[in-house]
Amino acid sequence: MTAVAWGAFFGSVLGIGLWSLVSLTPRLSRPRLANRLAPYLLDVSAEARVFVGRRSVDPIPVLGTLFSPVFEALAQALASALGGADVIERRLRQSGSSLTVDAFRSEQLVWALIGAAGALLFALGTPLGRSWPLIVQVAVPAVAAGAGVLLRDTQLKRAATARLARIESELPTILEFLTLSLAAGEGILDALRRVSRSTSGELSREFAGVIGDVHAGVSLSTALTELSTRMSLMSLTRFVDQVVGAIDRGSPLAEVLRAQAQDGREEAKRHLLEAAGKKEVAMMVPLVFLILPMTILLLTRR
């Protein structure tokens, strides 16, 4: 890439950046009359809903205004190519994210564009990249874009797995608290409310959301069933099934929850022993390939 091309590129970036900063000043970003009226016409005007949905262009208003149609089209094409909206929706809920599937696809597209741009700059701006064949220079940005998409998906999957593990580790303690509250004479709704207020953690926040749904008019059985479907965690599903069954039949819950808490403790111990066994095998690698050869060498030199 010649000096003129580099100058044009960095000049364009500088100009867009400066104009974006200027557009954030109050004088140039005062809301117009349409911006003021559109939120009040959402129920009666489809154009107002489209207009309000088109306003989210932060943090760079200039780039958002210029490229949002192209960006939305690319995000839709990416969603159509990858599919799996149900899986992404479940992972987003499991990870505790407030993003929608479309917002997540947009983030994937951003990661893909960043990866492609970085690979393209490397291929065209470095001596090593310029020495590559043309087909490699074309393929590297495409591979980098695909890697960006997969990396964002992997990050979401890891976040969902880690949060589910925290919920599963918190469940036995929460069940014991619920057992004590039920044994003291409280109902299941009051017990859930007490636990959500007096404890902290991922499961407590989920129970706080269930209490909020109940206060909004949803039945407790429906709210708990939605929680179970959203999390797709076996131990939590078993707890929800027992609570819903007890609510429907009017049977006592304290002893059942105490037994389930004990089962959860035993399962946690089993997982810990399995993890210890795997670590023991992994510790054999440095022992066999590092410590043992060094010991043999030292003994042979003597």
TrEMBL record:
- Any stretches that span the bilayer, and where are they? 6-24, 109-128, 134-151, 281-300
The keyword Transmembrane is assigned to this record: yes
Major location (coarse): membrane
- Keywords for this entry? Cell membrane, Membrane, Transmembrane, Transmembrane helix
* A GO CC term assigned to this protein in UniProt: plasma membrane
Q: Where in the cell is it found?
A: Cell membrane
Membrane topology listed for this record? Multi-pass membrane protein
Domain named Type II secretion system protein GspF: residues: 175-299
Q: Which InterPro entries match?
A: T2SS_GspF_dom, T2SS_GspF_sf
Protein name (record) = Pilus assembly protein
From what organism does this protein derive?
Cryobacterium adonitolivorans
